[in-house]
Amino acid sequence: MLTSVSRHASSANSILYSQVLISKNGLSAVNGCYISYDPTGNVFYLLSDDVSTWFGLLGGSPNKVGNSQCTIHGATSGSSKSGTDLTTSIDVSFRTSFAGTKAVYLLAGDSSGAVSSWQQVGSRSDTGDTQVVELISLTPSSGSGGSVTFTSVVKDSDGATTIPFTQFVMNAGLNGYNACFIHFDRASNAFFLLKDDASGWFGLLGGTAGQVANSQCVLSGTGSGGRASGDTLTVTYNLQFKSGFAGSRQIYMQAVDNTGVIQSWKQMGSWTVSGTTISSAGGTAQMQSAIGPEKSVEEPEAPVFATPTRYRVIRDGEVYRVGDEESDVISPSRARRTRERERQQ
Questions:
Q1: How many CB atoms lie within 10 A of CB 124?
Q2: How far apart are CA 169 and CA 254, in angstroms?
Q3: Per-residue b or e along 185-218, where b marks 16 or more CB atoms closer than 10 Å to that residue's CB
Q4: Cis link prior to 140 (omega < 30° from 0)?
């Protein structure tokens, strides 16, 4: 448990946010554990590895959110106010890849726009939590061509069967629209390819002779599949790319375990799509191998995972995609701007 105290001369209610950075690279949020806390909404925001996206978690909720360095546990995280002091408690654990000595920095800002300077308040050293899901590798992690078979490795010390799904996104950036976005369900060995507009999925059983496609890529059942062995889940993706998807593409993955621990959108590699011969026609599915309504495999919910660039708040066991109509929880800075406008009205 990480507990911090922020103080304001007039009242703790004047404190708009407090932030903590846990880093092995000084005052750099890249590949760090950077958390911003909104006391009004009781929302913790964890910054992604590449500092492009905030992931939100409601304090006191029975959920968790993580990046490649740390995991915040919502059930035992929250805050209290007393006079001039805001006390924030963050139940945070660290991944084994982030083991070792780390510096801890604090910062706070108030409703008038005043911001404290970053202060190093201590350090901590640990060996990391082995009992969390962790994205290990993607092979190949780079290259070029019009087709490729990727192999991903995900681990959980509680056993690979505790990993219900992994997700794979290939695009010019972290965006699920018009992407090669694949959800893999371990228990059924089923792949779901997201439609271009993120309105639904094309389903395919691994190891079957069919294919599913959208305007970016074609996923073949032959040569695709998952295998759980001990603490390791290995998933292969046999892909061909459409001509309209040519160019440099980044590859991101996320995974979750059955306790709700998420490692969110880690960049695993890159690929230059070239030499494609398949036209960029719309999505299709060969239904003799694809998963239809008559199948027992349940499709993932498109609104939850369709837009990885959307900020997400987790409440009451459900992950909500946050849109402009809920802009007070989209990001720390957006939340602050929204409340400032409300006070001025």
A1: 12
A2: 9
A3: bbebbbbbbbbeebeebbbbbbebebbbbbbbbb
A4: yes
Mean pLDDT of all residues in the chain?
80
With b meaning 16 or more CB within 10 Å and e meaning fewer, what string describes 42-67? bbbbbbbbbeebbbbbbbebebbbbb
Name the more confident of 318 and 177. 177
Q: 213 falls in which pLDDT band (50, 70, 90)?
A: very high
User: Which residues, in sequence order, are CB contacts of 210 under 8 Å at separation 6+?
Assistant: 204, 220, 221, 285, 286, 287, 288, 289, 290
The position carrying tokens 């993955």 is 253
Outline which parts of the chain fall under CATH 2.60.40.10: 134-309
Beginning with the edge strand found earlier in the chain, give each strand of the sheet holding 247-256 in spatial order. Answer: 144-145, 262-273, 247-256, 165-171, 180-185, 190-194, 201-205, 290-291
**pLDDT, tens digit (0-9, with 9 covering 90-100), for 61-89:** 888 888 888 889 888 999 999 999 999 99
Helix (H) or strand (E) holding 305: helix 302-305
Q: How far is CA 72 from CA 25, 34, 46, 91, 121, in A?
A: 20, 11, 8, 6, 20
The pTM (predicted TM-score) of the whole model is 0.69
Which pLDDT value is given to residue 295?
40
Q: Is residue 270 pLDDT above 50, yes or no?
A: yes
The per-residue pLDDT for 113 is 86
Q: Is the domain covering 134-309 a CATH 3.30.1330.60 domain?
A: no
Tokens of 139: 């092979």
Q: How many CA atoms lie within 13 A of 149 on its CB side?
A: 11
CA gap 190, 93 in Å, rounded: 31
Q: Can you tell me whether residue 307 is helix, strand or coil? A: coil
Give the model's pLDDT for residue 283. 54
